[in-house]
């Protein structure tokens, strides 16, 4: 059985492109937030620890949909209200593409924070002590000893974050961004064939998941090149 | 800041929260019942059992919940004549039924994966001991594997329950008036998005951490026999 897409196939492919673009952008942001968050959680400063803990606690306790609605509809009106109370008339409109990447990145940054924290703690203490004994400063030690090994421990966790993240991008369709889900919705309404198009879209997502699983396996075995065998 | 809109809508929001909890609970219950046989089938050596289970788990864990929800709610319309003939169309017309059905299928796939891991983690020695006593099949599962596996699965299952609770917010997209749905309607009328969405976020946060707290208590109770005995009695013995 083949799926007859009634000439709307190109729309799904274009949506897929946008989905992957949003996913990659959000992943980059999530990694950045994750590194900052992990730094905060392991910091000597109580304020940084408190901020990082609040970040992960709040994000993990609130549904993604609420956060997306809050960023897309809430933030512009909040800015407008603040401007109005300062006696200025301001109109703010967020671009759904930017709002989507920012929100998804912010949410999955919290999950990446936990991944990086675990990975940092998995670097053997002896290595850090050895680096100190050689007189390495904090930045040099981070660059030469900690980060190269940390990545290896972080990769499986980051792979999981990516796979959940790419599925979460479907939620951005509620703020009218024409990614894969929204394209399928438009095509389904136009042709009155909802099952056909949502099923086709689900197969696209499944394809991304399976491809990600295969790529993740390759990257992981590549990251262990040069590592002594038997060491995990 | 003027917060009257928040106070005025609080009763309706809490009414929505009740629907959120109801849908979560129903799907969790049905999902667990479905997940147990799926996990056992997934671990079977017979191809006719493990392959469908594997395909089911891959599909529901590999695609977004929103697509699954639309597939059931809107997609079922494409099969209306068939579903009508089967006498179940009146069910698929209801957003409530579609929501619970989809969430059940979704959480069952994730739960089956958790259970699969837990069943594999049951120590081989315990299974071998049971076999040597002549237990097999259902009796082995009922007496030895399940009690141990369920306890091992509990922390991960608690996480799944919390994810499901948050995932129920998607049912607002197919017109249900759960906590998110009520908030979206009030926002559409009053245009006070950040006040209401922050209130709703705080309600979700409270429910989430209440569930997490209760689950942690349950875990402690269920693993009471595995913990070391209180230190106090040892200190008392040493003093004697």
Describe the structure.
The complex is a heterodimer of chains A (232) and B (240). By secondary structure, chain A is mainly alpha-helical. Chain A is 78% helix and 0% strand. Chain A has a single domain (11-222), classed as MetI-like fold (Orthogonal Bundle), CATH 1.10.3720.10. Chain B is mostly helical and 240 residues long. Chain B has a single domain (4-239), classed as MetI-like (MetI-like fold). Helix content of chain B is 80%, strand content 0%. Chain B has helices at residues 4-42, 47-62, 65-73, 80-86, 89-92, 95-120, 124-132, 137-167, 179-190, 193-222, 231-239. In chain B, α8 packs antiparallel against α10 (193-222). The radius of gyration of chain B is 23 Å and the shape is flat. Mean pLDDT of chain B is 91; it is low at 233-240. Chains A and B meet through α2, α3, α7 and α8 of A and α2, α3, α9 and α10 of B.
In total, how many beta strands of chain B?
0
How would you classify the helix and strand content of chain A by structural class?
A: mainly alpha
SS summary, helix count of chain A: 8
CATH superfamily heading of chain A: MetI-like
* Beta strand count of chain A: 0
CATH top-level class of chain A? Mainly Alpha
What is the residue-averaged pLDDT of chain B? 91
Run of helices and strands of chain B? HHHHHHHHHHH
